[in-house]
User: What shape does this take?
Amino acid sequence: MRNYRAMIVDDEAEVREGIVARLDWEKLGFEVVAEAENGLEAIEKAESDEVDLLLTDIKMPFMDGLTMIAEFRTLHPSAKVVILSGFDDADYARQAIKLGVTEYALKPVNAEELSGVLARMRAQLDREYNEKLDIAKLREEYERALPAMKERFLGELLWRRMGEEEIAEGIAAYGLDVGELPGKLVLVFDIRLRGAPARELEGGLVPISISQLIEQSLRGRCNLALCSGLSEIVAVTAWEEADPVSRAVLLCNDISARCKRILDVRVTCGVSKRYSSLCDTPAAYAEARAALEYREEPGLGRAIYIGDAETGGGQGGMLDERTERLLLSAVRAGSPAQVEGVVDGLVRALDRLGDDAWQKQAYVVSVYNSLNRIVMQHGLSGETELTERIAFRGGPPAGERELRAWLTDACLALCGCVARRRESMPRLLAEKAVRFIEERYGESSLSAETVCAHLHVSRSYFFEVFKKETGRSFVQYLTDVRMDRAVELLHDPEMKTITVAYAVGYEEPNYFSHVFKRRFGVTPARYRRQATGAI
Assistant: This one.
C-alpha cells in the first residue's frame, strides 16, 4: 500500500503533537512530512515539500488558514485539504467550499473521528490514483476518442497557418471551445516512455493515460483541445486570464509530477508565449517545441516556458519559415551534427536557385538576417567575436563552398554562445533577484510575485532556479536578509523595536518578534539588552 504525504498546520504545538501521536499514520496510508505553527511557515514549507493532504486550523496568527489555503492551492492544486477548527461558522464553511476544501471538522476531534476523516481522504486519493491506472477504462475511452477528421483539423491548426474563416468552420464542426477566450497558449507534453511495459507502449496506453490526466487537470481551468501521439501530446488552450502563463506553468508542473509518481513516466512540457488569434497557433506550437530543447537545464520532468528559457534576450521573434525554424532549433540544441544537417539543406536550397545571381544574393542575405535575429533574440549583440564571425568579410558568400564554410562557422559560434548564455541565465536570474531583495526588503509588500513581475519570469521557474542557485527558498532568503538587517538596527539604542520591525518589512511587530526568536532563540528586546550590555 502506497503512502500519501501529509502536512499539519496549527498554532498550538500540543495539538500538532497530539494529532501525530494519536494516530497510526502508516496504517492509514499517510506519512507526516511537515508541520507548521502558522500560515506563513506552512507556505514556506509547501514551497519545497510535495503534499497530498493538508490538515489545518483556521484561526492562526500572522496568516489565517483560509488565506493560507488559497496560497497553498497555487502550489499544490491537486492536494486534499481538511480544516480542523474550533469555530462553527457558516461563513468560514462557505469560503472553505469555494477554496475546494474537502472536509471541515470541528475541534475537539478524537482519534476515531480523525481516523475516519483520513480513511475518507485515503479512499479519494486511491480512487483518483486507480482511475488514472485503469488501463481497461482508458482503452474504452480511447476507442471513443475524437474522430480522425477532428485530429486532422487539429494537426493542420498546429502546422499550417489557416485563415480565420477556415478556423471558425472547424471549431464549429468539431465542437471545440478554444476560440472563445482571449489568452491562448500551446502546451507540448514530451513523453519519455522508458521502462513502460512493451504491450502498453504498442497499444499507446501510457500516452492515453497521460492524455486523460492532462484533460482532468486542465479542464475547468481553461478551454482546451488535445492532439495526441505516442511521444507527444499537444494542448491548444484558451484562458480567461489576460496573462495565463504563470498558472499554466504551475498546472503543467503538477501534471509532470503526477505522471512521474503515478505512471513512472517523465513528461516535460513546453509552454508557448501568450497569443490572441488562433491563426498564430503554428508559431506558438513552434515556440512550445523550442522550449523543450532547453530540457537539460534545469532538467527533465517539468514545465519550461519559452519566455523563461530565453530570459535576457533582446528583440526579435520566432522565425516563420520552416528552414529558419530548423536553423534556430539546431543552434539552440547545440548539436554539431544537427547544425551540419541544416547547413546542408540551406546549401542545397541555394543550389536550386540556379544561375540567378540576384536571387542567390538575396537568399544569402536572408540567411544572414536570420542569424542576426537569433543573436538579438538571445541578447548576444554585445558578443564582439560572435558578431565578427557572422559578419560577411569581403561581401556575401558567392558559391556553395563559401556559403557552407561561413554558415557552419557562424552557426557553431552561435551554438557556443547560446549554450554559455543558457548555462549562465539561472545564475544571472538569481543574482538579479538577490539584488532586488536586498534593495526592497524593507517593503512589507515584497513577495515572490513582486520579484517575478520585476524579472518577467513565472513563479514556479523562479522558485526552482532561486533555490538551486542560492541553496535557500525565496522566503528563507528574504527572512535571512531581514533578520540580519534587524540585528544591525537593534544595536542602535535610539531605535525602538517596533520601528526596527517596520524598517525590515514587517507590518506586524508580534510576528517580527516571533520570527526573530525562532532564528536567534531570544526576543529582539532581550537581544538588544545582551548586545548593548543594558540591564
